[in-house]
Amino acid sequence: MAAKGPLRGIKQYALHQLVANYWSLPLIAVFGAPLIGALVLWADRQFAAQWLFERGVTLLVAGDTAQDLAIAIVGVNAALLTLYWSVTLIVLTLATGNLGVRLVDRWLDKVLTRVSVAGLTFCLVFSIAVLTRIDPVSGLSQLPHFALAVLFALELVNIAMLGVAIHDLGRTMFVDRSIAHLGTEASSIAVPIVPAEPFSGKWSFTLNAPREGYVEGIDLARLCKRLGSEGHVRLCAAPGQHVLKGEPLVRFEHEPETTKPVLRAIAIGDYRSSVQSTVYQVRLLVEVAARALSPGINDFYTALACADQLAAAMAGHARTWVDDGLVPAYEHAPRFELPGQDFRGLFEKPLKGFRQAAADYPSVSIRMIENYCRLCALLEARNCPEGMLAFLRQCARDLRDQAMACAQFESDRADIAQAFDRMLAEEGNGA
Question: Where are the transmembrane segments (predicted)?
Fold first, then answer.
């Protein structure tokens, strides 16, 4: 999937919950199919069937043949829908064993998945509606030729779409494809930020979290519009962060007239989900790597792919680095402070988690150290801040130390040390 950007506020969160699921579009198809069927049958009775019959454009030679055809199509549609459900359950069972249960949330968010189920459901209900209007003893001229033609055409489309959907389900099991999508999405900057001096005054009002949960998204544009242009505002909880009821959510230099617009702009959900954008995608890459390196799976090549995509994501977020002593601020309104939404806030803890998971695998540790080296070379050429380069070097150093401590063979320890030494040699300094 392409990156869609961060979710903004409660309104978008509620809309996402209604749309990005496995039942909403099929539900519309179930109720819409009888209406479309009635419309097609009405057109058939008024003019369409007679027009086709007069021109010899008919699929059938007798009324009982029409009924047999409709019954066959209903049976085929029921079988296709059952097949798709069965394959879906098998694929998700296998895929989540490698990627984790959070794959389900991303998979349900795919348009093709929802369209496939809705199309299969629509065709089944539509074919039943047409079947109810067929009289097997009626003459050939009284048959619903137009409705049967539409039914046959829909069946062709249905079978073709099933092939596409099954192919997509099969590709879902291909772990590297999902990892590549995660890396592409994670490399895009969800919220443009700039470094700013932290507010040194006193916060006059603190808005606490109204409930426990995870911050799903913040509608910064709405906040800027509703809060005007006066006073500093600090958003204490970044998307993806867990908050307890009563914990500080937003601090204000000047107390707002009402807090309702602010609360509407900050969505809090029950669990972590893909709508949290970059912070979720980065952590999911680490989760996939950690699961792949678990004894039950032991797939270090998947972990290598995750390491590469983490490097790509960090390269994409180079502009979000904020030096010590400064705070990240919203680019379009720097008076809004966004702690935790800069480079360090996005990557520091996930990189520690990756280090802990990769420490027992020298090949993965060496690849990530090499990625840190490549990143430093790339970012140094872009004149990135020295603080960011120092952060990446320290991450590489910590990974080297833990991997060497966990390595059981001297040759592995030597390879890990050489990878880090090559990093220093290529940079031409003794960092």
Answer: 21-43, 69-94, 115-134, 146-167
